[in-house]
Every structure is written in C-alpha cells, then in structure tokens.
Amino acid sequence: MVVGNGMAGARTVEEILSRGGGAMFDITMVGDEPYGNYNRIMLSHVLAGENAIDDDDLMLNPMAWYRENGVTLHAGDRARRIDRFAKTVTCESGRDVDYDVLVVATGSNTFFPNMDGLREPDGRLARGVFGFRTIADTNGMLQMAEAAADVRAVVIGGGLLGLEAAYGLRTQGVDVDVVHSPGHLMNQQLDERGGRVLRNKIESLGVGVHTSKRTTSVLRDPDGVVVGVGFNDDTTLPADMIVVTAGIRPNVEIARSAGLVIERGIVVDDQMRCEDEGSIYAVGECCQHRGEVYGLVAPLWEQAVVLADVLTGADPTAAYHGSRLTTKLKVAGVDVAAMGVKGPERDDDEFVQFYEPRSGTYKSVVVRDNKLIGAMLLGDISKAAFLTQAFDEKVALPDERISMLFDMGTPSAETGAAELSDDTQVCNCNGVTKGQILGCVRGGATSLGEVVAATRAGKGCGSCKGLVSDIVTFAAGDDLAVDVSADWYVPAIPMTKPELIGAIRASGIRSVSEVFEKLAPAGEDAAAKMPLASLLRVIWGPEWTDERGALFINDRVHANIQRDGTFSVVPQIKGGVTTAAQLRRIADVADKYSIPMVKITGGQRIDLLGVRKEDLPKVWGDLDMPSGFAYGKSFRTVKTCVGTDYCRFGLGDSTALGIAIEQRFQGLESPAKLKLAVTGCPRNCAESLCKDFGVVAVGADGGASDRWEIYVGGAAGAHIRKGDLLATADSSAEVIRLCGIFIQYYREQAKWLERTYAWVPRVGIDELRAILVDDRDGLVEGLHERVTAAVGQYRDPWEERVEPRSPAQFVSALPLLPLPRVPVR
C-alpha cells in the first residue's frame, strides 16, 4: 500500500511495475486530491495561463492509468491513521485498508509562518490567503485574479516557488509585490550578485521586490477581508491576495501518530526503510535520510528507483547514498543552473566570476583541490551540461578556469551532449537520464517527438529541451528522422492540415465520426474530436453535421463555463461602443437572474458571470443582443480607441473601422481565439501592436487620412510579443480585405490551438507578406472567396434559445461529482 498519490508515491509505483511488481503485489494507493498523479512543477505554467499546457502535460498518471495497471486508487480520501501492529490504514471515509508492505509518500506542506490575521478562528486560512502546492491553490488564485479588476497580490517568499507565483499572477494582469526576509532573491541557490541580476529581471516584468523585510501580520478590514500585510519595521503593503511561499515542511503527522521515528522528516535507512520497521518504508519529501530532507524532484526519482529494486527483489542490495543537488530550471522566464557551494569558503578556494548586469548574465565557479565544488549560471546556461559532469567528477577541469564558463576549449553544448555519462540526469522535472534517452532511441525511436512522448523528457519547465534534442541527434545519428507527426493536424490522422482539408472536401465528409471512419487508420481518438469539429466548421460552416459529443461544453451551450459550473455571458458590443438602452437591459438582466458579478472585460465589453445553465436561453432573450463569442476558438472582439470624433490626436476613424471589421468577421471559427484592435494614431491607446491583428492609423503629411499600418502576431498575455508589420493600407476597405485573407489563411494553415503569436513567427512575416500581400502563389483570390462565403453563413448562436439542438442542451448538469472545492473567494 502507498499512502500518497503525489509525484514520489506514483513514481515509486511506476518503478515497481516496470520491474514486474504488478504480478507480485496487489497495489493500493490513497491520495488526498480527487485526481490522478499530476506534475506540480507545471502548476507555475498553468498559473501563467500558458496555452501550450494541456491535461496531458499536467497529468502524469490520469485515472485510466491506474485501471490499466491494476492499481487500486482511493482518490480524494485522506489517510488518517496507521496501525503498525494490525497492519491497516484507516482513511477519512472510514475505509480500512490492509497492507503487508506500506510506503509512506505524504510529501510536504506549505510552511505558513506565524502571522497575526493569517487564519480564521477555526484555523482555516483567511479569505484571500493561499499556498502554492496544489491544483486547488492554483485554481483559487486564478479565480480571484479573474474575478475583479485591479487586484493586488503580495507573495511572501522570494525563492523559486514565490517568483514563479509572482510571474504567473503578473501575466494574469495582477499587480504583484514579492517580499523576502533574506537580503537577496533565491538565497538558497544564488549568491548576492546572482540575486541582484535576478532581481533586475523580475523587476523588469513589473513585479515589486522587497528584500530584508519580514512579514509579521496579515491586515484585514472589519469584515475579515484581506487588505494588506504588515512588516517588522512597521511599514505595510496593500494587498487583496496573499500567496505564502515561505518554504515547505515534511508532512509527517500520520507517521508521527503511528509512532514512527521523526526528526525533520521520517527517518529512513539506505534502503528507504523506516527506522526499527521491517515492512514500512518512506520516500520523497516526507523522509529524512542521513540527516537530509530534499525538496527537489531529482532525489525523489533516485529514492524511488532504490525502493523499487528492494521491494521487487530486482536488486536486494540497492542502496540510496544521498543526492548531490544540481538545479537547472527556468525561473519566471530566466534560465538558472546551480550546484554545490555558492562561493569560496577557504582562502585557497579558486573563485571565477563573470558579471554583466546589463544583459542579465552571471556565471561563477568554485574550485577546490582541482575539483569543482560549486557553480552558478544565470541567463546563459549553455555550459550547464559540462559543469554538471565536472561537479560529478566525471570530466577533468581545464587549466584555464574561465573556459569552464565559455566555449574556450571545453566542449560545446553539442559535444557536451555526446560526452555526458549515461547516468547524468538530463530532465530534472521528470527524472530522465541520458541513458534512458539512449535506450529509447535504441528501442526504435528515431525522432525527438517519439523520445519525448516515451520518456517525458523536456515536458517540465522546458529548460532541458535543447540538451534533449542534442542527445537524440547524437544517439540517432544518420537514422534521425524528421518527426512528420509534428505537422499532422491531429495525431490520429497522418495528414497535414491542408492535406486533411483537401481530403475532407474531396470526400464530402461532414461529421467527425465520418472523418474517423474514412481517414483515421486506428479509428476514433477522443482527443481529436474538438479540433476536427472546429476544422469541419471552417470548411462547411453551418452545413457541417453537428455531433454534440464532439464539442466542448462551451461550444454546445455558447457560453464560457466557469470553475463552479455556472457560465459567463458576454453580449456583443461592437468596438466597445454601447448605448444607454443596452446598459439598462444588461443591468435589468443582472438583477432579474441574480447574476453575482458584472465585469468590464479587457476587450471593452461587459461580462455577466455566474449564470446558471438552465437560465442561458432566458438571459439571451432578455438581453436581446448578439453573442460576443467570448467562449470559443473564434474571432472575438475588436478593441478601439476614440478615433477622430473626439480625440485631438486622432488620424483615422478607428471606431468606425473597428465596428466594420467586427461586423464582417463576427464569430468566425478559427484554430484559436482571435483578438483585434484598431487605434486612431500611433499613440496606440487600443494596444493594437500586441493583438492577433492590429491596425494603427498613421495619417499622411502629419494630418488625418485613411492610411493604416497592419500588425499581425502580437500578444500581451502569458507571452509578450510585438506584432510584425504585414502591410500599409491606403483605405479602410483595403484593411478589411487584408484582414479577411489573413484570417482565412490562418484558419486553413495554423495548428489547433496555435495562436497567431506562435504561427506568424513559425511561418515568417516575409513569407506571409509574399503570400498575402504580393500574392506570390496566386492564393489571394481563393482566400478572399472562401472567407466571404464563410462570413455570409453567419448565424447568431444565441438564436438556439428558440430551438435548442437537443433536449438536454440547456438542462442543468450540476452537481457533477461531490468533489472537494476551493471556497469562493
């Protein structure tokens, strides 16, 4: 039995199964959370709203994995008591589970320092206070960030986790301050100079940094609402949200109550056996080995291997001797690598530094008795692989120590990949060694995509992707294959998107099930349903065969599902221009249906949040306004500034042009959401330079005119990117024409969920200009015809309130499952 379904517990079970343990043991696992095992490292990416992160990236072992491997999982049921003599574990539900061998993998908990006002009288955290350890923590922060404008957050703790929390919240538009008691950030990994470089990087993101300050209190108003934090110097900071990342502590309460030996963690020997126990083991962050507890994943993987060898008898003499910690990761977008000591400790230690604050680069090495005992890289970590080898005493040090930091005689990154020893851990997030990658290639994998899918190397923080690619290239040699599947629209069908469109048109296929039947060699693939449904709508418009099961809930009910199962309704307000009558209707609807939140969106519209599913048709009817398409992968909104009517700087009528663009392309299906903006002068008040399609009036000879610059592929969310200049148009009509052919080419060529800020640089702005502006390939006329046909088929989806597509379309599906929920903040 394994108590704990986190990364350490599940990895131990994986290792046991890989050694034939499934035939030796009936394996039962108990986990607090109502999910399979997920990668906590990816929560930072989820908080940052990164579009590339999906369930496959987050979930290491989905619920189906346990069934397929014969593992019994009691999810969402906390283990409460261990009876060492009866050999049973009692769960919170009252369930008793017998065991012959018990593995305790309870991990660690967020450390909450003693602070006035941190908790309610019943011990719960105050509303607005979060840790950052679980999906629930992450969802709670996202919910609060999205629920109100001008949210301010204070992150207590400037270590790795705190900076990741600050970065994620900042990308959500939250004003963030980081407070750190020591004198510099990430003081566990970095020295003072490294901390200074990192601070400059963090502050450049718009995050406030306060070091050498100890938080002593959480300030709350008479209603108990968080309003700020207080410090030991009697100063304060305002805050609506507080995220505590002041460290972790081993979760040992169940082990302590069972009478196991506890110091800092559960004391274990070299075989991970608990002290004075014959059948109880511990692994991961909850255990203490030779006086050390570990909070990084790499030691957890090493412990899991040893424990699996011992329990299955694969190697009864296997022993864990502790871990030499090397850290390579990406902190708030900054590459960091650190190992060993941070600086010289003796007079004869050699200490070499390179410090360039302007470029955000800092490197240092510490050498003692001709051995590398410490290294630090910030910004440029290209020498991390060589330094890791040197730190493990697997390569000799060069006489010129400076060459350890630059390519001056030491191996380049490519050469270093070839010279790495097989036991070098390449991916710290998922515990993948070079030897495992080589084994995967020897087993038949011939492309980077196949290796990543089989080993998960590179699917954590992403800092090792380059090295993984180098190793695969080295290992495969002349057999290295181009990963053709990377260009397939969906994995189930071996065709690129243009090829698939051609096949669907040629065969007249109009339903998702028919696509699988005729074009998918292995048959149906659930993950391919939504992208295929989107593609069929692009090709056939309303004439596709609508199979409800192929659609996401948002597309089935034409509203955006929220975390609590209610929906948000965003009516269309073209160009952000509304009327008193529209505002009155919105206010009346909010009152009539007790809608808990009415919010102004970043796209100049009004969002009604908390609408019940069964009320959607009535809300739409009473609003009597078209859908604003804030829920789908589609053309969404055109943001505008005041333009020439009132602005004294206006060069072009941005409001009229924005409304015309939205009127023409409203609701148009696309691979991912499309956000547009039109600005009446280069002051760019509507933020056109960072939109999927942005238009800026430039005037002529310093005066007003109908002349516009068109920018494409911009972003200002999780990714920050200025759009590329596609063309300069001499009329509003030309802007609309170019907008249409750009959108249609994007609809036909981009991958599913690929935003324009990724698609434009992938294709190249020069190539797009040649195709769409210069018409090099003769495609423009066809693109214009197809987009004109598509917009001509527009129908307001909210009209389905009159004739629903199915009897259950607007029937409440709540409650779904009685799962634990984060309280509404």
Automatic annotation (TrEMBL):
PROSITE patterns: NIR_SIR (PS00365). Transmembrane segments: none annotated. Catalyzes the reduction of sulfite to sulfide, a step in the biosynthesis of sulfur-containing amino acids and cofactors. Its cofactor is siroheme; [2Fe-2S] cluster; FAD; [4Fe-4S] cluster. Pathway: Nitrogen metabolism; nitrate reduction (assimilation). Residues 632-772 form the Nitrite/sulphite reductase 4Fe-4S domain. Belongs to the nitrite and sulfite reductase 4Fe-4S domain family. Keywords: 2Fe-2S, 4Fe-4S, FAD, Flavoprotein, Heme, Iron, Iron-sulfur, Metal-binding, Nitrate assimilation, Oxidoreductase, Thioether bond. It comes from Williamsia maris. The keyword Iron-sulfur applies. This is assimilatory sulfite reductase (ferredoxin). It catalyses: hydrogen sulfide + 6 oxidized [2Fe-2S]-[ferredoxin] + 3 H2O = sulfite + 6 reduced [2Fe-2S]-[ferredoxin] + 7 H(+). NCBIfam families: nitri_red_nirB (TIGR02374). Residues 1-290 form the FAD/NAD(P)-binding domain. Residues 561-624 form the Nitrite/Sulfite reductase ferredoxin-like domain. Pfam families: Fer2_BFD, NIR_SIR, NIR_SIR_ferr, Pyr_redox_2, Rubredoxin_C. Its EC number is 1.8.7.1. It comes from the Bacteria. It is an enzyme of class 1 (oxidoreductase). Residues 426-472 form the BFD-like [2Fe-2S]-binding domain. Residues 327-394 form the NADH-rubredoxin oxidoreductase C-terminal domain. The keyword Metal-binding applies. InterPro entries: BFD-like_2Fe2S-bd_dom, BFD-like_2Fe2S-bd_dom_sf, FAD/NAD-bd_sf, FAD/NAD-binding_dom, FAD/NAD-linked_Rdtase_dimer_sf, NasD-like, NiRdtase/SiRdtase_haem-b_fer, Nit/Sulf_reduc_fer-like_dom_sf.
